[in-house]
């Protein structure tokens, strides 16, 4: 009959030398104070079990009991690859809650708590999959989800509506860039306040007892960038054609690389640098043969690109921060408030909009509608940026620029020369190649080892 020697805890001294019969398997076992064994490296401290197998009859008789079956491959794994003389399965009878030390035929078969240790290859795969770090939602590329596609379509639609109304107000209704920019920021602030503090179906604001560290300076800095981006973009739109303005904005990757090198000392790879050549060449060709070219409009559009890159870096940092992540409505509301504080006084002081009386009713309605479209464009852009990767966002932004260029030509009927059109196509293709090269470089860096993340590639709006 198989004798099981078990090193128990608690009252083992009182039970020493006594022979007990296991009620489940019928096997006899004796309790003794055995301190001669050495702990196995796999053994968990505080829990020991030893097994003695005799002729195997008790093991066979307990096959219908609650037991754990160990195959010969399991025995070889625990014993360091050594085969046992007997190939019949061993059974471990039901043990007390404290995990015991196993001793098999004097060969010191010791392991930690077999009930919790994985005994199959599938168990190890399951354990490894559970321990594998998962990507956060901001790191995943979920463009094909329904919500991301809805944000993308709405972003395109509101962008075209905003661009069309901007040009219509500045060129047809005689509006000023300061007036239009102030209205956009003011409407965005009011709509953002409603979404933040009035319950609605679109967004429910989570109340915060305290703001994160550096909250005020972050919002002021991003508000200044939004103020400059809106004002400079409207100045360029007033002096040059819509298609030319969007072509210049499409060359943003060129300024992204320059800013990354000047501020972050980030070096780009060979393919990324080569992809910038068609961007620069196409922009130069478009500028030379653009009929609506003016120095003021061109300079304002270039300055808009520079500020756009800075705003994009900062926005992505706040949207995917480790300590505190701002939601799109938060970022939209607080930065718009900061921009209004800067933009409205400058507009009233420089333009003096009421010197000729109150503005026309049609102009007021167009300004309000434009502000609503601008707010919806911005909020959908921020929401989309929080759900897809920077590379995917930049590709979507490049396609949006190309679509807006050709739609503006069809709607506004602005004349475009053949070489100017060729230059526009070259710029768009160059930006697409830049995005592919950037993605290839990031994948290669991820395979070589973790490194610093590159800055985002496109403007959030």
TrEMBL record:
This is Sugar phosphate transporter domain-containing protein. Residues 57-73 have a biased composition (Low complexity). Residues 1-120 are annotated as: Disordered. The lineage of its organism: Eukaryota, Metazoa, Echinodermata, Eleutherozoa, Asterozoa. Residues 33-46 have a biased composition (Basic and acidic residues). Keywords: Membrane, Transmembrane, Transmembrane helix. It is found in: Membrane. Residues 148-435 form the Sugar phosphate transporter domain. It comes from the Eukaryota. It comes from Patiria miniata (Bat star).
């Amino acid at each position: 009959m198989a004798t099981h020697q078990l090193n128990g805890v608690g009252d083992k001294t009182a039970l020493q030398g006594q022979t007990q019969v296991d009620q489940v398997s019928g096997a006899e076992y004796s309790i003794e104070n055995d301190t001669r064994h050495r702990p196995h490296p796999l053994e968990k401290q505080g829990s020991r079990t030893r097994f003695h197998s005799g002729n195997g009859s008790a093991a066979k008789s307990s096959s219908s009991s609650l037991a754990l079956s160990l195959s010969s491959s399991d025995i070889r794994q625990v014993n360091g690859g050594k085969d046992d003389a007997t190939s019949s399965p061993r059974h471990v009878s039901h043990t007390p809650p404290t995990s015991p030390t196993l001793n098999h035929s004097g060969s010191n078969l010791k392991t930690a708590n077999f009930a919790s240790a994985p005994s199959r290859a599938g168990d190890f795969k399951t354990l490894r999959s559970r321990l594998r770090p998962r990507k956060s939602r901001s790191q995943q590329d979920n463009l094909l989800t329904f919500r991301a596609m809805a944000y993308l379509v709405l972003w395109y639609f509101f962008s075209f509506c905003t661009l069309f109304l901007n040009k219509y107000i500045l060129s047809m209704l005689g509006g000023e860039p300061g007036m239009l920019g102030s209205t956009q920021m003011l409407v965005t602030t009011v709509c953002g306040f409603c979404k933040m503090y009035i319950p609605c179906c679109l967004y429910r604001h989570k109340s915060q007892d305290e703001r994160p560290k550096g909250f005020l300076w972050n919002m002021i800095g991003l508000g200044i960038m939004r103020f400059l981006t809106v004002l400079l973009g409207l100045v360029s739109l007033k002096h040059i054609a819509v298609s030319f303005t969007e072509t210049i904005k499409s060359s943003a990757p060129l300024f992204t690389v320059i800013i990354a090198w000047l501020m972050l000392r980030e070096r780009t790879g060979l393919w990324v640098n080569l992809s910038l050549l068609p961007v620069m060449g196409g922009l130069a060709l478009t500028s030379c043969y653009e009929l609506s070219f003016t120095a003021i409009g061109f300079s304002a559009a270039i300055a808009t690109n520079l500020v756009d890159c800075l705003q994009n870096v900062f926005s992505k940092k706040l949207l995917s921060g480790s300590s505190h992540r701002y939601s799109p409505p938060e970022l939209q509301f607080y930065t718009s408030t900061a921009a209004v504080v800067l933009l409205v006084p400058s507009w009233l002081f420089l333009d003096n909009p009421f010197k000729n009386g109150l503005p026309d009713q049609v102009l007021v309605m167009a300004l309000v509608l434009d502000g609503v479209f601008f707010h919806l464009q911005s909020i959908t852009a921020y929401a989309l940026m929080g759900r897809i990767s920077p590379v995917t966002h930049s590709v979507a932004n490049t396609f949006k620029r190309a679509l807006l260029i050709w739609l503006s030509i069809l709607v506004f009927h602005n004349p475009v020369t053949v070489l100017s059109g060729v230059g526009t196509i070259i710029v768009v293709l160059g930006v697409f190649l830049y995005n592919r090269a950037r993605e290839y470089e990031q994948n290669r860096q991820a395979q070589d080892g973790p490194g610093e993340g590159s800055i985002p590639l496109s403007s959030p709006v």
